[in-house]
Write a structure and sequence with these properties.
There is one protein chain. The chain is mainly α. It has one domain (2-18, 40-95). The chain contains 4 helices and no strands. It has helices at residues 2-20, 42-60, 69-73, 82-95. The longest helix has 19 residues, at 2-20. The two termini are 16 Å apart.
Length: 96
């Protein structure tokens, strides 16, 4: 399931297009999203998170919150890479 979510995140980022989500690199599971070597600024991250939440709901009929207090308080941010975001999304979906 992780690869399916990674593909969904990458597809969602591509669908947002260059105007909404300017990316300086091609995305894969290891791509750093946010932080020191991240490809997104804070607005880009928020845009992607909202779009991924909607895509997850559309595909899996499961409403998940990826920008919640738990995510923001973790010592290792779930936003650091595409794969860490996918892992966090899976953990949130299992709660529903």
């Amino acid at each position: 399931m992780q690869q399916e979510i990674i593909d969904l995140i990458i597809s969602t980022a591509r669908d947002l297009g260059e105007d909404e989500l300017p990316l300086s690199t091609e995305l894969n599971g290891d791509t750093q999203l946010f932080g020191k070597d991240g490809v997104l600024d804070s607005m880009g991250l928020v845009t992607l998170i909202i779009a991924v939440e909607q895509a997850l709901e559309d595909r899996f009929d499961s409403a998940v919150a990826l920008a919640d207090e738990k995510a923001l308080s973790q010592s290792k941010s779930p936003y650091r890479s595409v794969s860490s975001l996918a892992d966090y999304a899976i953990s949130q979906m299992k709660k529903n």
